Amino acid sequence: MSPIIRFDQVSVAVREKVILSNISFALFPGEKVVLCGKSGSGKSSVLRTFIGLHAVAAGDVYFQQMQLTAASVHSIRNATAYIGQEPVLGAETVREALLLPFQFKAHRNQRPSDARLIEVLNRLHLTADILNQKSSHISGGEKQRIALARGLLLGKSLYLLDEITSALDAESKQAVFDVFSDSQLTVLSVAHDKEWLVRCDRILELEAGRLVGERTHGNA
After folding, report:
1. Do the beta carbons of residue 162 and residue 84 sit within 8 Å?
2. Which pLDDT score, from 0 to 100, does residue 1 have?
3. Domain total for the chain?
4. pLDDT score at 95
5. Strand order in the sheet with 66-67
6. CA-to-CA distance for 203 and 182, rounded, in angstroms?
7. What Pfam families does the record tag this protein with (predicted)?
8. How far, in Å, CA of 168 to CA of 175, rounded?
9. Which long-range contacts (C-beta less than 8 Å, at least 24 apart) are formed by 87-92?
10. For position 188, which CATH number holds?
11. 105-141 pLDDT, tens per residue?
12. N or C, where is the chain less crowded by C-beta within 10 Å?
């Protein structure tokens, strides 16, 4: 089985400061892998590097068998749902934010009905009345779940998640856990939440931009 994501001795520098150094790992279809470490250790930088938000200074990044380059980055982003700690929804209302990707030619024929929008929102412990709320008026946790709903509506199978459960109550958190229990979804995440960690297959430990350890689920 070929990996979906592979980092091969990847180093990244921002404004001449090295933020990732010689990072190598692979993520296989259906796996749930979490990046752990202190603040500033490079966890979020790994996610951002994969979608081309940080330039690779050395080494190579691959999506399936495709190398991350200026020419391929658009295809990689199209195949990936990246949900940061404070997602930019890009539209005035939640309904418009959910439907935004379906304005483009690639997804125009897949525009979901209101019933489908409500179905996906309910899965994430969000009620239908949020559709008419302004995107600027909803909480950070709600924005993350709206961004997740958009990924689900688009049928994405690869998710990059940055602290997606940190702002959620217990019921909302369980709803997110239930979504990602799907073996068809592949997840690379950043998290400190112990409940999230125990649901992941592998834990990658980062320190000062280096990968310093790896644990499989159930092994301390």
Report:
1. yes
2. 81
3. 1
4. 95
5. 17-27, 5-14, 56-63, 66-67
6. 19
7. ABC_tran (PF00005)
8. 10
9. 87/143, 87/144, 87/146, 87/147, 89/135, 89/143, 89/146, 89/147, 91/135, 92/134, 92/135, 92/136
10. 3.40.50.300
11. 777 788 999 999 999 999 999 999 999 999 999 998 8
12. C
156: nearest Cα among 103, 88, 85, 107: 107
Low-confidence ranges of the chain (pLDDT < 70): 217-220
Compute the CA torsion angle 61, 184, 157, 192 (nearest 10 deg).
-70
> Which tokens belong to 109?
């024929």
User: What count of other Cβ atoms lies within 10 Å of the Cβ of residue 29?
Assistant: 15
Name the residue range of residue 104's domain: 5-216
| Cβ neighbours of 72 (radius 10 Å) | 15
Separation CA 175–CA 214 (nearest Å)? 27
Q: Which amino acid is at 153?
A: L
pTM: 0.93
The Cα 47–Cα 162 span in angstroms is 8
